[in-house]
Amino acid sequence: MVKFVFDVDGTLTPSRQLMDAEFQSWFIRFQENNATYLVTGSDRIKTLEQVGSHVYNFAHRVYNCSGNSVWEQDKEIYCNDWKLPQEAEEWLREELEISKFPLRTGLHIEDRPGMVNFSVVGRNATLGERKLYAEWDNKSEERYTIAKAFMEKFPGILALVAGETGIDIFPEGMDKGQIIKDFEGDYVHFFGDKTEKGGNDYPLAKLITNGEVHSVQSWEDTWSLLRK
What we know:
Elements: E1 2-6, H1 21-33, E2 35-39, H2 44-58, E3 61-64, E4 69-72, E5 75-79, H3 86-98, E6 109-112, E7 115-119, H4 127-140, H5 142-153, E8 157-162, E9 166-171, E10 187-192, H6 202-205, E11 211-215, H7 219-227
Parallel strand pairs: 1-2, 1-10, 2-3, 10-11
Antiparallel strand pairs: 3-4, 4-5, 6-7, 7-9, 8-9
């Protein structure tokens, strides 16, 4: 069976923003005729806010928090209760202190089911503040540097660049790649914007041997590919 799996931020929506209304209407019609699944580092509340209840509930299954909180419509069928070790949290706070990016907006370490999201600029940043950090990070590659150093310091815990400003952190094996077991025997089309090594879509992308990985730069890319 052919199945379509989509990342959300940067793939179906602008990062941390709402789904384009025209694309949303088109995508709902696409869902009516195709088996669709969502896999995102965000929690259920944020995903519902971004894609809307119709897109969320028309998906056969939604893998929130990189597959650590799994939903079928309004029912959670799996939840991982892993917590970040205290030593690792203290290390992240030290990195926050020494970062040369000047702006801090709060909520820098966000607990989610089975994972943590770390952001130097903070989850409370406005769209403009997020853009400032994204531009700075593109030049400095701070997130990749922090993620690499974290994994060297804490073997067995992954740290992967996610979205525009964050780093997703979870135990080895609890990344997006964990959902591949639900697609045995299926032909999978996976759409993601962070499919390169070090990105949070990579663990799933590298496991897809029966299907296609579509690396996109935006929701417009996704829409264009789907229409083709």
